[in-house]
Amino acid sequence: MGERIVNRSEMARILEVSEPTLDRMMDRGLPVLQRGGNGKPYQFDVEAVIAWARDDAEREEAARSAREADINQLAMDLNGGATAEIEGVSPGLSGKARIDAINALLLQDKLAKQRGELVPVEDVRADYQAMFARLRQRLLSLDTLLTRSAGLTPAQAAIVRQDMRALLVELAMQIADPDLRPVEPEEMH
């Protein structure tokens, strides 16, 4: 099936939403081939929009499921089920006071996310992976750089290469398990 291009009102009809809802969807990332304005119509690739809408629905369902699981866990905690402690919420509070405290914590988290103070762990992990990849690349070429710039012998370059590989292994282990006790510099030799 070839590319099908439609305008804004047609796209809204295809998705069975109003045009203001379509605008909100565009704000959330719905793909637009061409933004409209000054006599220029909006243009949408129907297949790309449908794929985005399907993915968006899956993301919303995953978020809804996660929230539902959180609510179920909180209900269990409040009703004597699993006794997972919630940091910042006293276990001695009455049911209503405990719910209010939990709602206050949820609101704090939501506001912190909006202010950019909380970052999804996937984003942090991706940033660490990118930085580690760049660091790895530079460290693995350090022996060659030192051989050229400082005149290391092949034996000295091999020692540098071995030390860099050991360091990379330690860093990878630390990233994989942040609870590992970091090796102190004086312990390394």
UniProtKB/TrEMBL annotation:
Entry superkingdom: Bacteria
Name of this protein: Uncharacterized protein
Organism placement in taxonomy: Bacteria, Pseudomonadati, Pseudomonadota, Alphaproteobacteria, Rhodospirillales
